[in-house]
Specification:
single chain; Mannitol-specific EII, Chain A; Histidine-containing Protein, Chain: A; eight-stranded mixed β-sheet; binds phosphoenolpyruvate; binds magnesium ion; EC 2.7.3.9; phosphoenolpyruvate-protein phosphotransferase activity; PEP_util_C; sugar transport
Amino acid sequence: MLELAKEQIAMGQSAADKGQALRLLADCLVADGLVAEGYLQGLQDREEQGSTFLGQGIAIPHGTPQTRDQVFATGVRLMQFPEGVDWGDGQMVYLAIAIAARSDEHLRLLQLLTRALGETDLAQALRRARSAEALLKLLQGAPQALALDAQLVSLNLPADDFEELAWRGARLLQRAGCVESGFAAMLQQAEPLPLGEGLWWLHSERQVRQPGLAFITPQQPLRYRDQPLNGLFCLASLGAAHQALLERLCEVLIEGRGQMLYQATSSRTVLEVLGGEVPADWPSARIVLANAHGLHARPAKVLAQLAKGFEGEIRIRLLDDSQPAVSVKSLSKLLGLGARRGQTLELIAEPNIANDALPVLLAAIADGLGETVEALPEASTEEVLVVAEPLSAPVPGSLIQGVPAAPGIACGPAHICVERDIDYPLRGVSPSQEREQLRAALETVNAELQALVQRSDKAIGEIFITHQEMLADPALMDEVEQRLGQGESAAAAWMSVIEAAARQQEALHDALLAERAADLRDIGRRVLAQLCGVIDTPEPAEPYVLVMTEVGPSDVARLDPQRVAGIVTAQGGATAHSAIVARALGIPAVVGAGAAMLLLAPGTPLLLDGQRGRVSVAPAADELQRALTERDQREQRLQQAWASRHQPAVTRDGHAIEVFANIGGSQGIDKVVEQGAEGVGLLRTELIFMAHPQAPDVATQEAEYRRVLDGLDGRPLVVRTLDVGGDKPLPYWPIASEDNPFLGVRGVRLTLQRPQIMRDQLRALLQAADGRPLRIMFPMVGQIHEWREAKAMVEQLREEIPVADLQLGIMVEVPSAALLAPQLAREVDFFSIGTNDLTQYTLAIDRGHPSLSAQADGLHPAVLRLIDMTVRAAHAEGKWVGVCGELAADPQAVAILLGLEVDELSVASRSVAEVKALVRQRDYQTARALALEALQQDSAAAVRALVEHY
Ligand code: PEP
Ligand code: MG
């Protein structure tokens, strides 16, 4: 997405003419690596087709569809021309915004600019701006329009007092997207203003996203501060957006027409009096926009011109969009809609011109507004009615098939953790009473935390100790005290302070502090629940099966393996966060079991089989017994596996495979070796970067890598270079947001665009090696040039820092890399197959998709075929292949990967002993036969069934 930043602005430029200005802009885009040289031609061609002059001294030069492939990265560069450049027809440009974009991303920029375009003398202000900051302010700081429409008017509400009306007003504004959830509390602190005729006014500027006005009237007349209370205006104030409305309201009141507002029985009357959004009963018509690049400047100009031919008001809005309708006659407002091809426009016209105007405008839009348009695909005329089946809890005896996420059998009562919304009063009874309630709630929560500290192990206990410290933080309590003094309820005061503190933490853009924000909210909620008497279902006394929607990062700490026997989640797949966490903690888990699980009665006995992905609800006694016997046998097997964890993994007929560990940093490296790993097969270095508030420098990284190599004591270390971007951004590394981050600038694509970061990391790695076996691999390689460029960087550094035992390879996680394996294998030293991403890209299923990821099974024959191709290509060139995705630890997959002749498996360290033991039970020749048969299957389920019977 295109956003504006001051670093993109070059102030005080001059150009003799438009041609020279375009060259300057193109040079700047090229120098910053956004486009190739040929993009200049695109800028020139585009101007030939039609000027990109936008109005108010601004032009937005951009390329043509033919030059889109010259764009390396989406971005903009701005140049101020204080002396002006004639953009044709005497239209002077003082600010040119050159856009490098492959698609219609410039529409978003237009949307952003239109607020500024509404300003009357912007051109001169842009010309005179002295700094990039000032210029940016001019572009972004123009006031937003005040939201005031039917959804913001609520009449005859059954409310008992002023507070309740204010609360309802805040709710309306929140629902309309004007304010954040904390706005209600802000409003309660504001000083109410009587307007006369029983109308009152309240406003706040805090927690406001977009200016908006709500109007509410009570069902029966109320009194407030000894005056009538007939209606209340709640303003979410931002800048001067409400000025015009306020003037109008004053006029209404001076003319003594206030009763038209508080006696109104329809929102339409209120809006007519106040000049709000167009009443809903004006004639309207809808049409789907077919222009390939949406309603951009040229077609918008045509539409506005056409509308100006009609005397009267015509408005337009995007259907399915919360933005209010805008005047069709305003070019800037039209552009502000950001309408794209395929979106439905609704035109609304004053009744006296509607019959004439609407057909003309509709026909013009259908004709493409001066552009040739390709017809939209026929939409089905039959309305598709999706009837959602009402969910009900699974009945006793049902067997639910989910996704196997962490092996093991577990049983216990269900502990259902679903967060519920808690409503609370905003005003308190009296400060002393509220203070007392809060004190009692804090004391209870503190005692609960103390109990948790006592029964948790040290690491988890420390988290609860931190929570206790937060509860006792005097700074928080001072603020709460102040609010109580102003009449807020204990709950409102507590929640506003907690929310404000959490936001402050988040604003620091530090991953660790952001975690603290989650902790704060967590603790905030615990206290709120106490205050409101909402009893979260108590944890069962015996070890239980935790049932949640999804296990998020802030839940991880609470997963005490002593208490949580198993995990069932409603959403998620085998590579989802919850699954990885459960495996790392050794808790049996089934994920993606469906939302009905959340409806189970607390305490319902559950039996889960994490290996087969099954959950039995209230199982029969004999089923339970069988499962428990199996669990005991597995326990025994694990104990045996543990005893022989340091033995190599060799099949019964003598075929050896290496078993390595996946880690995220140097902490716990000793444990890795202790758990039997023969090396590290995947060091996810992004976790090291994420643990720092800014990119760690070479020395910091070198120390970290050294610790890992020291801990490995001569065993090999396979390091993956930084794998961020797309869905896992680094907070301190701004990356333009993308529509499809999984298909965007991520992994090696990103680091190649930031060569300095990559070079620093490689330098730190080479310096840390000191003769020890180091393997470096690059993530998300999809093209051979990416591998070659990355390799060249290492080779260059190697001339400076000699390394004795170095191998370079790539991760195979993009299908193109597997398909290209024969070519790549000639150049790489090894491949490591990232089955998590390889599965997601092969099956086109987002690995974290709430409902689909359950099908993202790495044992799908399509994925197995890619693994097979990769191994065969590598072996033909004498290179080795590892598998480091979650599939490597799946007990049903081990024999197949062995049979596909993979040379190394890299798994969570606690799975090392088990995987080794599974290999030892196998016969290599049988595994070969199993793998060959698996390749012939037509689904993952068929492969799993095959393994069961082998
Ligand atoms: C993979 O994609 O399989 C992999 C190991 O990388 P990550 O899970 O870190 O994306
Ligand atoms: Mg990956």
